[in-house]
Amino acid sequence: QVQLVQSGGGLVQPGGSLRLACAASGFILDDYAIGWVRQAPGKEREGVSCISDADGTIYYTESVKGRFTTSRDNAKNTVYLQMNSLKPEDPAVYYCSAAFYLCRRDNYWNSANWGQGPHVTVSS
Given CA atoms 120, 99, 69, 45 in this order, what sign does their dihedral have? Predict the structure, then answer.
């Protein structure tokens, strides 16, 4: 059974940091592209980052460049999203998704495999 299990999330003050983890079971995460997608209440879904299955290239949406870092730990079959310098516009539900060639698709949520999506809240 293919499953993505997420951990992390929570409440942090502006300027703070959080790390989200996306662990795979039933498949080898390194074989797939992994996307990070967020959705805030009343806003459109947004692709945040994607790590390519083809060559490991990591893509970021402009608003998080320099603040968020996606990484892979193959030994743990887990992908991480390190979020630093969090801003008031970052709160959302953050999902990871996995699919072949995901980074090349129209969006990072064009996938059948999703994590459960923890909340990230930024508030003083």
Answer: negative
